[in-house]
C-alpha cells in the first residue's frame, strides 16, 4: 500500500441547544454550555487573608467581560464575555471562606524534612475541608488558594534555605530509614532510641507524596470533594495581564481556561462530542514507575465514554516495566483484571451496553496483554489496541509554498488535522500545526506528529485517527481548540503520579471520577 494523505476536518463540539462549533470559546460564547443550569452549586475557598482577598477579586473578574486591548491579538486570544454569558449563570460567591494563618503556613512549608513540609501544609487545608461535614448544604467544589512559598518549598526537589526547625542529623536519618523499613514490613520496634527517634512521629507522612499538590489531591478524595488548587500569583491581575499585552498570557485566556475547569469540577460538562458513537468507549492505560531496578510500576485505566465523561480505575502494582525495552506491559492476568474492573465501573456509572472498546497506550500492547484484555470483554464487544505516542523521529512536514524564491518555500507549518497513512495499520497524525480558526500556529517548535498504530483488532485506521483528533478536544481542564495529545494519554503521567506517590493512602478511597485528578 502506497502512502496516502488525508486532511481531517476539525471535530465539532456540541453546546447549548445542540448547536455545534469547532472552538469551545466560540460555542460557549454563542450558545452556552451543553449542560446548563440556572444557578451553580455552592463552593468554599481556603487560603490566607491575602489569598482570600485575591480570590474575591478573581470572582469579580470571572463575572465580567475581558479582552486584549490590541484587536489584532483577539483572534488567537478571543474575548471572554463573562461567566453568565459563557456558562449560563454567574459564578457564585463562596458559601464559606476559611482563613489560614500565613505565619503558621510559612513555618509548615519551611520544615527541614520534605515529607513533613508537604504533610503539615496539606493538614492545614484538610482541617478546614473537614469542617464541610458540618454545613447544611454540601458544596460541590473547594478552592485552595496557595501562597507561592508553598509552591516553591513543597515539591520533591525543593530546597529550603531558612528552615523553621532543626534538621535531622545523618544518624537520625539512618535510624528513621530503618524504622520505616520495619513499618513497611508490618513490624514495630519495642525500644525506640529517643535521642534518634521521636515515638510520636507520624509515619504515615512518609508513605505520602512530598509534593503538596499530589498529596492533597489524593487525601481530599476521602471527603468526596473535588478541589481546584491555584497560586496567589496567578490571581494577581496586573495592567499588562488585563490588557493582554505581549509577553504574558492574557486575562481573557486565563478566565476561559479557569472558568471551564471550575464548571466541570462542579459536576457539569461545558461541551460534549456529537461525533462520538454510542456504546464506544476509549481507555488510556496510565503507568508510573515505582522502582527502576525491580521494574515495579502502578497501572491505571482512564476511560472516556461517548457522553464525554471520564472515569479512572486504579490497578495494581507489579513488575510491569521492562528496562531493556523501556516499555510498560501487564501480565495476562493483570490485564484481564484491569479491564474487567474498568468495564464494571463503566456499567455502574453509564449503564449502556458496550459495543466497542479502544485501548490507547504509549508503550503499545503486546499479544499476552491483549489476550488478557480479550478475556475481560463481554461477548459481542469488539476490542482494538492502539499505540498512540509522539514520534520525534518521524520526518517533519511543511506546507507547500509557491514563493518565487525557492529558499522561502515550505516555511509554513503543516495544518492541524493532516494525517499521513503509511500502511493499513500505521500512520502519523499532526495534532499541532496551523489552525485556521486561530489564524496561526500557536506552538514553539516544528510540529511533531502522533504515531497511531493498530496493534490488535480490525479497526479502520482513518476512523481511529479521527477519534484521536476528537479526543484532543476533551480536556475540560482548559478551554482550547485542540491539544497535542488525546485525553486518553495526555494526563497519564499526572494520574500515575497521584496514584503512585501516595502508597499509604488506601485504594478503597480512590475516586473514579476524572475531575479528582486534574
Nearest-angstrom radius of gyration? 25 Å
- Beta percentage is 15-25%
Q: What oligomeric state best describes the polypeptide chains here?
A: single chain
Q: N- to C-terminal separation? A: 42 Å
* Approximate helicity band: 25-40%
Structural class: alpha/beta
Which CATH C-level class of the largest domain is it?
A: Alpha Beta
Count of distinct structural domains: 3
Write down the overall geometry. globular
Q: Report the CATH topology name of the largest domain.
A: Nucleotidyltransferase, domain 5
Known CATH architecture of the largest domain: 2-Layer Sandwich
Average pLDDT score? 88
Instruction: Tell me the number of helical segments per DSSP (H or I, 4 or more residues long).
Output: 16
Can you describe this structure?
The chain is of the alpha/beta class. The protein folds into three domains: 36-156 and 212-265, Rossmann fold (3-Layer(aba) Sandwich), CATH 3.40.50.2300; 170-207, no CATH class; 280-516, Nucleotidyltransferase, domain 5. It is 30% helix and 18% strand. A nine-stranded mixed sheet has the order 1-15-16-17-14-13-8-9-10, sandwiched between helices. The chain has a four-stranded parallel sheet with strand order 5-4-6-7, with helices on both faces. The chain has a two-stranded antiparallel sheet with strand order 2-3. Helix 12 packs parallel to helix 13 (367-376). The chain is globular, with a radius of gyration of 25 Å. The relative contact order is 0.14. The mean pLDDT is 88. InterPro entries: RNaseH-like_sf (IPR012337), RNaseH_sf (IPR036397). This is Piwi domain-containing protein.
Amino acid at each position: 500500500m502506497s502512502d496516502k494523505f488525508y486532511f481531517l476536518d476539525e471535530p465539532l463540539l456540541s453546546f447549548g441547544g445542540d448547536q455545534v462549533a469547532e472552538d469551545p470559546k466560540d460555542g460557549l460564547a454563542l450558545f452556552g454550555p451543553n449542560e446548563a443550569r440556572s444557578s451553580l452549586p455552592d463552593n468554599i475557598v481556603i487560603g490566607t487573608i491575602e489569598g482570600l482577598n485575591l480570590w474575591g477579586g478573581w470572582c469579580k473578574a470571572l463575572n465580567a467581560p475581558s479582552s486584549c486591548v490590541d484587536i489584532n491579538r483577539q483572534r488567537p486570544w478571543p474575548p471572554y464575555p463573562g461567566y453568565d454569558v459563557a456558562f449560563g449563570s454567574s459564578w457564585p460567591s463562596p458559601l464559606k471562606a476559611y482563613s489560614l494563618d500565613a505565619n503558621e503556613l510559612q513555618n509548615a512549608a519551611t520544615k527541614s524534612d520534605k515529607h513533613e513540609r508537604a504533610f503539615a501544609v496539606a493538614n492545614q487545608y484538610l482541617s478546614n475541608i473537614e469542617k464541610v461535614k458540618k454545613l447544611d448544604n454540601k458544596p460541590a467544589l473547594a478552592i485552595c488558594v496557595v501562597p507561592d512559598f508553598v509552591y516553591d518549598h513543597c515539591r520533591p526537589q525543593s530546597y529550603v534555605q531558612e528552615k523553621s526547625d532543626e534538621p535531622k542529623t545523618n544518624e537520625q536519618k539512618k535510624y528513621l530509614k530503618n524504622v520505616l523499613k520495619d513499618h513497611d514490613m508490618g513490624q514495630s520496634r519495642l525500644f525506640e532510641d529517643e535521642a534518634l527517634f521521636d515515638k510520636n512521629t507520624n509515619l504515615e507522612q512518609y508513605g505520602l507524596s512530598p509534593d503538596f499538590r499530589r498529596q492533597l489531591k489524593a487525601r481530599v478524595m476521602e471527603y468526596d470533594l473535588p478541589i481546584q488548587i491555584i497560586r496567589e500569583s496567578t490571581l494577581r491581575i496586573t495592567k499588562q495581564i488585563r490588557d493582554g499585552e505581549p509577553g504574558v498570557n492574557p486575562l481573557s485566556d486565563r478566565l476561559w481556561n479557569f472558568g471551564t475547569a471550575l464548571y466541570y469540577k462542579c459536576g457539569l460538562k461545558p461541551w460534549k462530542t456529537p461525533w462520538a458513537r454510542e456504546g464506544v468507549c476509549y481507555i488510556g492505560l496510565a503507568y508510573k514507575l515505582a522502582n527502576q531496578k525491580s521494574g515495579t510500576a502502578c497501572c491505571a485505566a482512564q476511560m472516556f465514554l461517548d457522553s464525554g465523561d471520564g472515569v479512572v480505575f486504579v490497578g495494581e502494582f507489579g513488575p510491569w516495566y521492562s528496562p531493556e525495552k523501556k516499555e510498560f506491559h501487564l501480565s495476562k492476568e493483570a490485564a484481564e483484571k484491569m479491564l474487567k474492573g474498568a468495564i464494571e465501573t463503566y456499567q455502574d456509572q453509564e449503564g449502556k451496553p458496550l459495543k466497542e472498546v479502544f485501548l490507547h497506550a504509549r508503550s503499545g500492547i503486546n499479544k499476552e496483554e491483549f489476550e488478557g484484555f480479550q478475556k475481560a470483554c463481554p461477548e459481542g464487544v469488539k476490542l482494538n489496541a492502539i499505540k498512540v505516542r509522539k514520534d520525534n523521529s518521524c520526518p517533519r512536514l511543511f506546507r507547500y509554498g509557491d514563493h518565487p524564491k525557492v529558499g522561502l518555500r515550505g516555511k509554513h507549518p503543516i495544518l492541524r488535522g493532516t494525517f499521513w497513512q503509511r500502511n493499513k495499520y500505521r500512520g502519523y497524525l499532526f495534532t499541532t500545526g496551523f489552525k485556521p480558526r486561530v489564524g496561526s500556529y500557536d506552538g514553539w517548535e516544528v510540529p511533531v506528529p502522533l504515531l497511531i498504530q493498530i496493534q490488535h483488532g480490525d479497526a479502520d485506521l482513518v476512523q481511529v485517527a479521527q477519534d484521536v483528533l476528537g479526543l484532543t478536544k476533551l480536556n475540560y481542564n482548559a478551554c482550547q481548540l485542540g491539544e497535542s495529545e488525546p485525553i486518553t494519554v495526555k494526563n497519564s503521567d499526572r494520574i500515575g503520579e497521584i496514584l503512585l506517590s501516595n502508597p499509604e493512602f488506601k485504594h478503597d478511597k480512590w475516586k473514579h471520577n476524572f475531575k479528582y485528578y486534574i
